[in-house]
Amino acid sequence: MADSLVIIPTYNEKENIEKIIRKVCSLSVPFHILIVDDGSPDGTAQIVKSLEAEFRGRLFIEERKGKLGLGTAYIHGFKWALAREYEFIFEMDADFSHNPEDLIRLRQSCLDGADMSIGSRYIKGVNVVNWPMNRVLMSYFASVYVRFITGINIQDATAGFVCFRRKVLERIPLDKIRFVGYAFQIEMKFTAIQYKFNVVEVPIIFTDRTEGTSKMSTSIFKEAFFGVIQLKISSWTRKYN
Question: Locate the Glycosyltransferase 2-like domain: which residues (predicted)?
Answer without folding.
Answer: 6-172
